Amino acid sequence: MTAPFRTGLAALAALSxxxxxxxxxxxxxxxxxxxxxxxxxxxxxxxFPGAVAPFGMIQLSPDTDTxxxxxKCYSHAAGYRYEDxxxxxxxxxxxxxxxxxxxxxxxxxxxxxxTVGLEPDDYRSPFDHATEQAVxxxxxxxxxxxxxxxxxxxxxxxxVQRYTFPAGKAAHLLFDLRSSLYNYPGKILWSSIRIRxxxxxxxxxxxxxxxxxxxxxxxxxxxxxxxxHAFLDREKKVEYRGFQGPSRGADDAQQLAGxxxxxxxxxxxxxxPLEVKVAISAVDEDGAIANLDSEPGNFDAVRAxxxxxxxxxxxxxxxxxxxxxxxxxxxxxxxxxxxxxxxSDADGRWRGPDxxxxxxxxxxxxxxxxxxxxxxxxxxxLLLTQSEKKNADFVNSLIASQQVSPFGILPVWQxxxxxxxxxxxxxxxPVIADAYMKGIRGFDPNAALDAMVKSATYGPxxxxxxxxxxxxxxxxxxxxxxxxxxxxAYDDWAIARMAKAMGKADIAAPFEARAGNWRxxxxxxxxxxxxxxxxxxxxxxxxxxxxxxxxxxxxxNAWQYSWFVPQDQAGMFKLLGGDAAAVKKxxxxxxxxNSKLDYSHAEDIxxxxxxxxxxxxxxxxxxxxxxYAGQPWRTQERLKxxxxxxxxxxxxxxxxxxxxxxxxxxxxxxxxxFYPVAPGSNEYxxxxxxxxxxxxNLPNGKRFAIVAEGLSDTxxxxxxxLLNGKPLARGYxxxxxxxxxxxxxxxxSAKPNKSWATGKAVRPxxxxxxxx
Length: 772
Known about the structure:
By secondary structure, the protein is of the alpha+beta class. Helices cover 26% and strands 22% of the residues. The protein has a nine-stranded antiparallel beta sheet. A seven-stranded mixed beta sheet has the order 1-20-34-35-39-36-37. A five-stranded antiparallel beta sheet has the order 5-11-18-15-16, with no helix packed on it. The model is unreliable at 2-24 and 244-250 (pLDDT under 50). Residues 36-281 form the Glycosyl hydrolase family 92 N-terminal domain.
């Protein structure tokens, strides 16, 4: 899911590649030093600025609004919004760039002084952006009301907060179990808190939000002794007070359970910072304590370890280019390495979609899979930047979830091990198939293929029963039928590709046939993908610009979805009338006059260039389609247009929400100079680079360099391409060519090269014309 339409988006200040001399100087600092977690925290980027380790289980970050209701929650999906003037507190879990709000679990806020109220308005504090600092793995801000300097860092399963209180004032922590993102009445089903004999604070809560019946446990260990505390049951309007010491049994002063709990912990006047170590678990309190102990060390030790982890993770891509561009690419890479998040405990236990606890023995379970978004570029990027083990962990997590799913299918949009049923398709399939096709092992391919087939044949899901009978999803039986038809067809192609590679022709054949089902909803007369009814007729009236939820398309319209045939763009171009007709229609899409259209009712429509919507994923591959029509120079022009209007090195620098790294992964690939239009094809369509030089430090230990000679604002076209010193005549790269290491060298030009990569034999993969 992505972001709401904002009027005036076309007027975003463009980042020019021709900058003043100081800015245009090539930056040589490490990639991690260039990343800026504040990018995307404003506008509708929905990213958070707080501390997280690569793929970390815990995300310590400020929440500026936890009281939102339904529509307002969308703008605060990450908890923090740059435009807000106050901070409610710091919670332990956050999405990075999601199109739906949830999480914000276990909020802590430091307060100072003798009088401390337990209501949100009592402890909410103003802050100044000038006091903020955000780098990968670390966040800090000064809270004006209590005068406290708040610092956050996080390891894989542990977070550490450090609070420096003003001298001469008593120090307190407010712990609010009522607070949550998407916090409507009745979301908190139950919660509990207790102080253990050793001073460790533990508890749990169950919520009913985006995901149902989500259980989460916590463990908190302050570095100083608690001198007093108070527990408030807001529902019963009863406050319990007590003092820290050996447990005296199950009295209310030491522990409490209920639906609206808040606690205050007192520390008196202290002569130094208060460190608070926190951990979570989906299994039980003991699991949270074990996670707390799994990463020893104080704040500085955890920060140093996580800093090294980010140096290594972001060092997978070395960048050289103008500082603003490098900052944007480095930040995009950073955002692409936050999810899928670790979600098994240190002992390997995890809670699944069946709400039962399971044991992982040979992999680390991950959750937070926004698959409708991330199958496109996020997961393909991880295959180039992460180890085989890490990518196998992702696949094993998907398979394990399927094996314990009450419905027996792969995750659709999963977080904290729970299924939300958000978005369409069965897009865990291309993630698994792409990994297998690119040589990732460490998982059972037979179990994977079985899971993929079960997902593609589960009739009750999203009109699949009708799709299997009719060859398309009928709109009078199922909403968003046109989108579902083409997305199912692509996923079916991915199954066929993997089955064929495994030598299972009996499975490959029927799914290869199903991969052509997109034709059954493509109306040749209008040149658009359209929804059909069960009797075979197209639904009328038809307006290709109309966007409405629950209509023929998913978060888009016919203009965007008519191009979604990544497995067979050549076949689709043929139905349009050939290459010239396809180029004409692509131009019509980008140049469309939107002045009389109003998409303000659709939250997820942002980043419009005509009818191209960069803020939403169905458009992400479209600029690369000129290359399928033999006009790659037009792809180069459109990419420059998109990059300059949709990305900035500022808090509002993302035109739409980041969707767990997909918007960012698109930008990383595009800046490098190529993009995976059809994951599963083992090909990348060549675009144009936006950096002077970039080097992929590949998981196999080899290096692949991309060099752009003469890159400038004027030289926006690709004059020629060399692969390992030899001319490359085709408009695509093979995966094997990248992982073998070497060099891709672009010579940039002020004029388009209209003879390079134009012939049909040198165009990217399409199943109907060039099976390879």
